[in-house]
Amino acid sequence: MAPAIQAENLVKTFGDVRALDGVSLDVPEGTVLGLLGPNGAGKTTTVRVLTTLLQPDSGSAQVAGVDVLKHPNKVRSLIGLSGQFAAVDEYLTGRENLQMVGELYQMSSRDAKARALELLEWFNLADAADRTAKTYSGGMRRRLDLAAALVVRPPVMFMDEPTTGLDPRNRLALWEVIESLVEQGTTLLLTTQYLEEADRLAHDIAVVDHGKVIARGTADELKAQIGGERIEVVVHRPDLVAEALAALTPYAKGDPAVEKNTRRITVPISGGAKVLADVIRELDARSIEIDDIGLRRPTLDDVFLSLTGHATAAEDENGEDGSAERKGRRAKGKDA
Ligand SMILES: Nc1ncnc2c1ncn2[C@@H]1O[C@H](COP(=O)(O)OP(=O)(O)O)[C@@H](O)[C@H]1O
Ligand SMILES: [Mg+2]
């Protein structure tokens, strides 16, 4: 069976910027592909090409077997798109926005009303249904934009960072909506900066950076590729960091990372708690005092650091959640 979404060697430049530098993808029907990458990687550009909003300089793409460049109108009738920036009419209420989409797609007025109500409830917008969208918070607009993309249940969906800026409750609710869509057979291409999200929703993940797909696999495969679990140690005395690193190096299954200013050493290992106990004994034998030590699974940061040499920075414009769940050392996005 032909993939529901297929792209071959897409190239797109904006002046000097090679936004897409030969992107190839395929998404089998009924599956979810997570396009994972930091700001500026080329995720939105990929989505815009596949949804006919942007012409590539070269390359080709098909959606539901239809050529995106040759038959854009046909493709548009087969897809749903929810954008990173809400395509919502500010002067209509939430309910009117959704009904209007249904009517644009030739639903009967009665069906459009019923669908609007169902989606308002799904997205926790029922209480705000009759307020104009311009009174909505950023997160509410995001939810309304997503709901609008779901009005007509298209067979192929594109979602560009659907949960960036949503609070944890709404993020979970959206994940459930997406899972139920996929259960009903929708094919989905979703972009995200959250490995956790790709982990939960995507059958397959393509990691993009600088306009290229640099890795492809399931979440587990990607994590395994960068060496599985790691030990993280915070050394008490700055002058003992180097010695601690020397003590840890024999256990390393990959390159250790040292953050001098926080005195933190991260070492990929295999062997779990047993190795952790050995390391604690070893540090103790050398009288190296530690502030913290633990075992953890690789994070999105680790995957990126390892694959690209730089960390991700989740963007978050008009979010509901601030950076509450952006744990640890991840830099906060400044553009967008
Ligand atoms: N319309 C545009 N004009 C100029 N540069 C653009 C335009 N759209 C995207 N770019 C550039 O292309 C690169 C990829 O952008 P984008 O696809 O939006 O990345 P992402 O969605 O992964 O953050 C970035 O360097 C961005 O600045
Ligand atoms: Mg983007």
UniProtKB/TrEMBL annotation:
Subcellular location: Cell membrane
SMART domains, per database record: AAA (SM00382)
UniProt cross-references to Gene3D superfamilies, sorted A to Z: P-loop containing nucleotide triphosphate hydrolases
Topology in membrane: Peripheral membrane protein
Keyword annotations of the record: Antibiotic resistance, ATP-binding, Cell membrane, Membrane, Nucleotide-binding, Translocase, Transport
SUPFAM superfamilies: P-loop containing nucleoside triphosphate hydrolases
UniProt cross-references to InterPro entries, sorted A to Z: AAA+_ATPase, ABC_transporter-like_ATP-bd, ABC_transporter-like_CS, ABC_transporter_ATP-binding, DrrA, DrrA1/2-like_C, P-loop_NTPase
TM regions (residue ranges): none
Similarity comment: Belongs to the ABC transporter superfamily. Drug exporter-1 (DrugE1) (TC 3.A.1.105) family.
NCBIfam families xrefs: drrA
Name of the protein described by the UniProt record: ABC-2 type transport system ATP-binding protein
